[in-house]
Amino acid sequence: MPSTVTDFLPLVTDSAFTIVAALFVLTLVVFVHELGHFLIARWNGVRVDVFSIGFGPELVGINDRHGTRWKFSAIPLGGYVKFFGDEDATSAGAADDAQMTEEEKAVSFHHKSVGRRAAIVIAGPAANFVFAIVVYAVVFMAIGMAITPPVIQEVVPDSAAQEAGLQPGDRIVAVDGSSVSRFEQVQQRIPLSNGESVTLTVERDGRTLDLTATPRVQEVTDELGETHQMAVLGITAATSAEDVVRLGPIEAVGQAVAHSATLIKMTVITLGQMIAGDRSVEDLGGPLRIAQMSGQVAELGFDTLLLFAAFLSVNLGFINLLPIPVLDGGHLVFYAAEAVRGRPVNERIQEYGFRVGLALIIGLMVFVTWNDIIHWNSR
Length: 379
Hints:
- By secondary structure, this protein is α+β, with helices and mostly antiparallel strands.
- The chain is built from ten helices and twelve strands.
- It has helices at residues 5-43, 102-106, 114-142, 160-164, 183-192, 249-275, 287-298, 302-320, 328-341, 347-377; strands at residues 48-63, 69-83, 145-146, 152-155, 171-175, 178-179, 198-204, 207-213, 216-221, 227-232, 235-237, 244-245.
- The strands form five sheets. Strands 6-5-7-8 form a four-stranded antiparallel β-sheet. A two-stranded antiparallel ribbon has the order 1-2.
- It starts with a helix and ends with a helix.
């Protein structure tokens, strides 16, 4: 415990810095998501009543000339866009339109075609993906991208790599049949093995060899000082300042798209392993973990904080596409059923679906927050 004012001040300063960084990241990512919904809704002639960053009581807000209330709300853990004709902020149901005029129906979300509603819903996650691609592309052009040759410099004694027969000078050209051109790609793929055997294709003295390695799951400390259980091979590569290369616009965009797709693939694999019980759920983090990490990455520079926001944006976009009622993916499932059947899904079925979805989301939030508290207390 701090015993003097001098001891206490750094804690206050660090906490304030972390809070500001976390609010910046969350506000930016949520704003991008909701702006996607907003822009496509307006493009399709839907009136938007509310654009809110956060939930709960309004803190501050203004009305624009189109009648939209733009506001910040008290609980900064998300946001929403409320369309004209929505029963509530989730767009789960339509308000009673018996008293609506034809002019009002023309700007009501629920009176638009199923295709237009689907476009409006999918625009949120799409905006998150586009934002991430733009950030990555700009960083790859302005600062550069790490392109370390996948050549082994050192094999750690008694490691999985040594056991597999890997040697210094080996060039890794594929992991489980998927080609790699950078050492960073090897670093991304090995942890996904979760300790299962992988086939490494290497070039050695003009020959191509297939070696089977079984990465060992062990405690690893990352650049932020966080410890994780991670599968590792036990190899290092020679790195230098020359490995960070500034890319041209076309290549930067291509690499940004590929990097975003890799993040989604890694998330799918990791979630699948957790659901199957093959991976611990301890690394699942919630708002407290995001806040903590925001403060840590902000200390490394604004560009690093933007990259973290892009990473969260990809994850937010992907998670919102999961077929869970309340999330965008749940809405899309109902719209797909409506398109096939030629009429909307029964209102009671939708209502029960949204209740179950809301219960799942609340349960997940409680779980990850508990995970955050345990993680925090273990530090």
